[in-house]
């Protein structure tokens, strides 16, 4: 019982970490792309 609860907690936190990491990377890419687009727009 205790072990299964422990592994479940670990799995949940691991999935959450991976998801947040993936989400953050995605937002970062979008942010960089937007910044580049704005910079190009200002140059032309």
Q: What does it look like?
A:
There is one protein chain. The chain is mainly α and 44 residues long. It has one domain (1-44). Helices cover 95% and strands 0% of the residues. The chain contains 1 helix and no strands. It has one helix at residues 2-43.
Q: N-to-C SSE series?
A: H
Largest sheet: none
Cα Rg: 19 Å
State the distance separating the first and last CA atoms.
Answer: 64 Å
Structural domains: how many: 1
- Report helical residue fraction: over 70%
**How many separate helices?**
1
- The total strand number stands at 0
Low-confidence residue ranges: none
What's the layout of helices and strands?
Layout: H1 2-43
Attribute tags:
mainly alpha; 1 helix; 95% helix
Quick summary:
The chain is mainly α. It is 95% helix and 0% strand. It has one domain (1-44).
């Amino acid at each position: 019982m205790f072990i299964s609860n422990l592994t479940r907690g670990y799995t949940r936190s691991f999935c959450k970490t991976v998801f947040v990491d993936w989400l953050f990377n995605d937002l970062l890419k979008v942010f960089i792309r937007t910044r580049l687009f704005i910079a190009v727009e200002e140059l032309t």
